[in-house]
Amino acid sequence: MTAMVPPRHLVLRSPAQRVALRLPLRALVILALLTTALIVLTVLSLATGSYGVAPGEVWETLRGMTVSRAIDNVVWEFRFPRTLAAALVGAMMALSGAVLQNATRNSLADPSLVGVSQGAALAVVTMTVLFPAFSGGLRPWIAFAGSILVALAVRSLSHTSQGGSAIRFILMGIGLSAFISSITSALLTYGEIDRAMTALSWLAGSINAASWTDVRTLAGWTAVLLPSLLLTSRAMSAMQFGDATALGLGAPVALTRNLQLAIAVGFAAIATSVVGPLGFVGLIAPHAARRLAPAGMGLHLLLTGALGALLVLFADLVGRAAFAPVQIPAGLITAVVGVPVFVVLLIRSRPANAS
Amino acid sequence: MSRVFILVAALTAMALPALGQDTRSYTAANGTFEIPVTPQRIVALNDQIVALPLYELGAPVVGSAGRTDADGNHFLRGGMDTLGIDYANTGIEYVGGFNGLDVEAIAALQPDLIIGGPYTDPGVAEQLQKIAPTLLINNNELGIIETMRAFADITGKTGNFEARLQRYRDNVARLRDYLGDPEDISVGLTFMFPEGAEMWVYKHSGNLGAIAQVVTDLGFREPAAITALSTNETNYSAELIQDLDADFIFGFYRQQPDATPANIRAAYEKFAPGWCQALTACRNGQFILLPGPTFGPTMAGLDLALELIESNIAARPFTPFAEAE
After folding, report:
1. Which of A141, A217, A296, B236 is the most buried (most CB within 10 A)?
2. Helix or strand run (H / E) with residue A205
3. Max Cα separation, chain A?
4. In A, which residues are within 8 Å of B101 by CB distance?
5. Has residue B323 been placed in a domain?
6. Are residues B46 and B102 in the same domain?
7. Residue pairs spanning A and B at CB distance below 8 A
8. Are residues B51 and B99 part of one domain?
9. Domain boundaries, chain A
10. H/E segment holding residue A125
11. pTM of this prediction?
């Protein structure tokens, strides 16, 4: 099965050699390290919180033994779904950013570029400020509808008789996003203060209300969207060299781009609908993954997803535990932690690029 | 041995309220729940709107959402000003901000009842149901009196509340007699931040707590420009400030270190230069600054607002404002 291993790469071939994978060892090692870090952080997240639960009690609770009803609640109903939701949301936002950067060939693309975050924000703020009685259980659906509507509007407005162009798509996204953000700001400014404060909490990207229903939603959509994305990764690799080259290599460029945009919007819309807009993850994670370990598109997506999960899981843990009982939304922590890390990565990678 | 006995006794005492409580059904904005007839450990999900009125009623509040100042200290908004209470001088524990609650900190307090409102994240309220019945009381719809009545009912303090309310109503009737025809006196309500960046105008039916309730109960007239507003509270244009003119204008400000009466007057000047000359109420000394506790949603807030109106309006000569037809 394994044959002709070039230095620093692992080559896998299927028995009939219909599929061959050439995987850089460094990226595999980094992926393994990130996965280990994710597991460690998950354990730490389950063992940390305002309610004093000894690690042994957490372990017994996870094994299905009831230490007390209160501890059962804390571990199973509060910490576990929150931990899983944080990781899943992080992975989804990161993957959305990676796909958008590839589809638009713009390294600054992220979910806010195509109006997904702004659409969700406008929908939720409108309901919270103007129709507070309806904004409870319907919130994820309202956010999802807002995201999808705005993404579709950007897509259709940027489409011309000659087809769509990446630059037109980006410009339309920026313009429409700015317009939508101004409406959201007006609602927050002129709405009743308590309602506006409630909406602001959601806008900051908070995972504190994550439930098992949210985890099932996030996991279900990830199970559908991630394999679909990985199936397009070969065409995505070709598209990195431009549409003409990709077409020359036989990649179905138009189909792949439409599929990519649909998947990117899906990832971001689902994640945003559950926890609110999480800034920077979709921008930072793909770049960080690229700088940590250059790899082919498929492995790059996995690295990006793992990094996004790690970033948001860390942000949520710090936000809920570092200054407890003060709760800091994960969205603020991702910005505070993520941006400096991103800058350091950029600076450290500069000499390597220059050589 | 004695230490073990004390520990067991203490744990038993903590557990007893939860174990042996009689319950009853109560219907709140978020549904019908079985709640203790006499709650022993209540967590309030808002300091000013829930914790203060509950504490005033004598209900056992063990935890409350609160605010955090620039130095990182937690405080109950309006607590020291209105009732002289804060986290430091009560047994109330801080459980996060009203829009950033720490559910585990709430669970650690072992409450038997949790009370929030429309400002409570519905997802968080669902989580809290797993700890104790969590009632969301819609104070915006109920208004200050009915909200306090609901709190009294929930906590078994109805007798206490109705007695204080009756005294307040008697004082309102007495003041109406002093005023003569309050329906002929127009009163405007404004709110200013010390930064002077924006000014809010409230309808008498607006959500400005005790003072708006008192103004309504006394039967003052609302200036036409305020009646014409489409919402209960409006971020008002500086260019239209003269439209707010009335016999009396009550300008409220939140009590905080940088919000002194002098700073608030300066903030009005910054917001709308020449504002005092533009308003006959101000020119004639009938623009009255009132501090934060007068808009707190408590019986103490109602009593204070009533007293301040009595001392500022009743039995004093004033220059009436003739509103344009």
Report:
1. B236
2. none
3. 68
4. 208, 327
5. no
6. yes
7. 95
8. yes
9. 9-61+73-354
10. helix A116-130
11. 0.80
* Same-domain pairing of B222 and B148: no
B225 burial level (CB within 10 Å; 0-12, 13-18, 19+): middle
Reported ipTM: 0.75
Is residue B69 one of the residues assigned to a domain? Answer: yes
pLDDT, residue B1, reads 47
The range of the structural domain enclosing residue B300 comes to 179-313
**What confidence score (pLDDT) does residue B13 get?**
47
Q: What is the pLDDT of residue B27?
A: 93
Cβ contacts of A352 within 8 Å, gap of 6 or more: none
- Stretches where chain B sits below pLDDT 70 are 1-20, 207, 293-294, 323-325
Spatial separation of the C-alpha atoms in residues B70 and A39, rounded to whole Å: 36
CATH number at residue B55: 3.40.50.1980
B107, B220, B248, B260, B263 from B199: Cα distances, Å: 40, 22, 17, 16, 14
- Which residue of B14, B99, B136 is the best one to mutate when testing the A interface, meaning the one whose CB has the most A CBs within 10 A? B99
Assigned domain for B247 exists: yes
Task: Verify that B193 and B296 share a domain, yes or no.
Answer: yes
So what's the pLDDT on residue B294?
A: 65
Residue A265, min C-alpha distance to chain B (Å): 24
- Reported as a single tens digit per residue, the pLDDT across B28-53 is 998 999 999 999 999 999 999 999 99
Q: B62: Cβ–Cβ under 8 A, 6 or more apart, which residues?
A: B41, B42, B43, B91, B92, B93, B109, B111
**Would you call A132 and B207 a contact, using CB atoms and an 8 Å cutoff?**
no
- Give the best residue of B98, B104, B237 to mutate against chain A (max A CB count within 10 A): B104
B-chain CB neighbours of A74 within 8 Å are 104, 107
Q: Assign domain A9-61+73-354 one CATH number from 1.10.3470.10, 3.40.50.300, 3.40.190.10, 3.40.50.150.
A: 1.10.3470.10
Q: Distances in Å between the alpha carbon of B323 and those of B190, B241, B244?
A: 18, 14, 10
Both tokens of A124, joined, read: 């939720």
Could you give the CA distance from residue A46 to residue A71 in angstroms, rounded to a whole number?
A: 11
Confidence at residue B190, expressed as pLDDT on a 0 to 100 scale = 93
Place of tokens 């649909």: A262
For residue A336, the model assigns a pLDDT of 82
Question: CB–CB of B96 and A135 under 8 A?
Answer: no
Pair of tokens at residue B320: 């009436």
Do B296 and B197 share a structural domain? Answer: yes
Residue A233: how many other CB atoms lie within 10 Å: 18
Interchain pair A327, B102: CB under 8 A: yes
Residue B169, domain member (yes or no): no
Q: What is the pLDDT of residue A4?
A: 52
Rounded to whole angstroms, the Cα distance separating A157 from A134 reads 30
Amino acid A237: pLDDT: 80
Report the number of distinct structural domains present in chain B. Answer: 2
Residue A211: phi and psi, rounded to 5, are -120, 175
Per-residue model confidence (pLDDT) at position B5:
55
Please tell me chain A's helix, strand, coil percentages from 3-state DSSP, rounded to the nearest 5: 75, 5, 20
One domain, residues B105 and B190? no
Tell me how crowded residue A204 is: count the other CB atoms within 10 A of its CB. 22
Buried b (16+ CB within 10 A) or exposed e, B79-108: bebbbebbbeebebbbbbbbbbbbbbbbbb
Say yes or no: B110 and B195 in one domain.
Answer: no
Whole-number pLDDT of residue B59: 95
- B148 and B188 part of one domain: no
Positions in chain A whose pLDDT score sits under 70: 1-7, 132-137, 161-166, 193-194, 342, 345-346, 348-355
Cα gap B184→A144, rounded to integer Å:
52
